[in-house]
Amino acid sequence: MLRKLDTLRLKLSRHGAAATAYEAAVKALAAVADFKILRGVFVDRPDQAFLECPYQPMLLDEAALRRFAQDPANEMSQEFIDEATARGDQCYAICDGERLAAYGWYAFGATPIGLPGVLLYYSPGYVYMYKGFTHNDYRGKRLHAIGMTRALQHYLSQGYRGIVSYVESINFDSLKSCFRMGYSVFGTVYVVRAFGRYRSFSTPGCRQYAFRVERAAGPGAAALIFGK
To answer: Which domain holds residue 28?
Structure first.
């Protein structure tokens, strides 16, 4: 009980009463339905404050990925690598010698978001960032922000227009981190599963980036109804 009170006090001090109440309401709804609120974010200009890196930033080839996946602390399974590389996704990482300090994955087409039979789509010409990770030994060094900013610089040099991603609406710390890096929210996608079907509703701001959740093609895909 005391731990819960301490957690509540921390949330109130960090995010305020309104945000804390919003989080409680969303979690209450999620307890009775498979429900997500996704804030679509984008960035197209690297923030110079996050370009200096204390370690070595790089794109990892498959051999390096397989090697790092052998350590459970890196939270990257061989099965995940199989699926991601089959789609053509890339891992932009920060390495400290032979150690994996941080990484993020970058996709160039429809990508799973952890819901069965559902994919996230977005406008061609943008890169989608997902699965950001910083090793426990390297927390507090801004490596997540540095890695994403260096990756943005790299993909802009390859002709892409910027990076899009999403943050769950109750993940206030991640949203704040995105804002510090120069990300802006462009819209929201609501996804709920009820009576065996997923329903998706997108706000108008998502149209500029064709940012939407859709049913995956193929047999056995979950049914999905779209909002405009």
So the answer is: 1-32
pTM tops 0.85, yes or no: no
Check residue 77 and give left, alpha or beta (phi > 0: left; psi -120 to 50: alpha). beta
Number of domains observed in the structure of the chain: 2
* Whether residue 67 sits in one domain with residue 156: yes
Pairwise CA distance, residues 65 & 113, whole Å: 21
Closest to 115 measured CA to CA, from 185, 177, 69, 168: 168
Helices 2-30 and 172-180 pack at an angle, to 10 degrees, of 80
- Positions in the chain whose pLDDT score sits under 70: 1-33, 217-228
40, β-bridge pairs: 166, 187
